[in-house]
Amino acid sequence: MAITSELIREIFKGLDNADGATLFKQVADDVDWTVTGTRPLVGHHSSKNAFIGGTSGRAVRCSHPGEFMLSKYSLLRRALSYRLLVAIGFALVIVVLVYQPVKIEGNSMAPLLSDHELIFINRLVYHFEPVQRGDVVVFSYPLDRTKSFIKRIVALPGETVEIRQGLIYVSGNPLPEPYVPSQYEDPSDFGPEQVPSDSYFVMGDHRNTSNDSRVFGPVASRSIYGRAVFAYWPADHFGSLSAMWTTEAKNR
């Protein structure tokens, strides 16, 4: 029997987009399809004669060059898959070498960080850029180097720190601290004290419960080994710590 353009139209019914219309036009206009008895379905064309395996053990001849396009598309997909795997592998290596997961113990950095929270620290960042005021850093505890603390940088090397009724002055200038909620402030006084040339003055955001440079003194630069960059547990704290700091400041 002859497969007319009407039957072809039924086959491609529902293809109302541009690709479907183009495909129907190519099949309906360019190929004369016939089937005789149990013989294979054969398509005749004056210049092309591509071969594709058919269903039910039949062979189908088709003038459409789709098989070559499919072959190229298949190779492209393989190449993209390979590149994706390489990119994922490279990303995993970077994560292992640069980022270290740590668990927070205590609430001295609340509300930014809470007890038992899990975060990533960047271990290499300070090999390429200096420590900056406001950074949340991880360092070896000066009184017991087997322990690690996490605090915020308040004053840099050579600066003078003074606290008056809970307000911090660095080299005589008041330090804005939007990350410290009013209920966490400590109204006590401290200093003035000059920070050594190779050290940093650190404090916890939860000022009235924090054990920091007011107690154990400035932290040597060699003791700082990472900057807190990302929180990943609990799920509601998932995200960049710098973004969370900004959000906390806006919510004050």
Topology:
Layout: H1 5-11, H2 18-30, E1 32-34, E2 42-44, E3 50-53, E4 59-62, H3 66-98, E5 99-103, E6 118-122, E7 136-140, E8 148-155, E9 160-164, E10 167-170, E11 173-174, E12 190-194, E13 199-203, H4 213-216, E14 219-220, E15 224-233, E16 239-240, H5 241-251
Key phrases:
alpha+beta, disordered N terminus, four-stranded antiparallel β-sheet, disordered C terminus, Umud Fragment, subunit A, eight-stranded antiparallel β-sheet, 2 domains, 27% helix, 5 helices, 252 residues
Structure description:
This protein is α+β, with helices and mostly antiparallel strands. The chain folds into two domains: 5-64, no CATH class; 104-251, Umud Fragment, subunit A. The protein has five helices and 16 strands. The strands form four sheets. Strands 5, 6, 7, 8, 13, 14, 15 and 16 form an eight-stranded antiparallel β-sheet that branches. A four-stranded antiparallel β-sheet has the order 11-10-9-12, with no helix packed on it. A hairpin with a 5-residue loop joins strand 3 and strand 4. The chain is elongated, with a radius of gyration of 34 Å. Residues 1-5, 27-64 and 248-252 have low confidence and may be disordered.
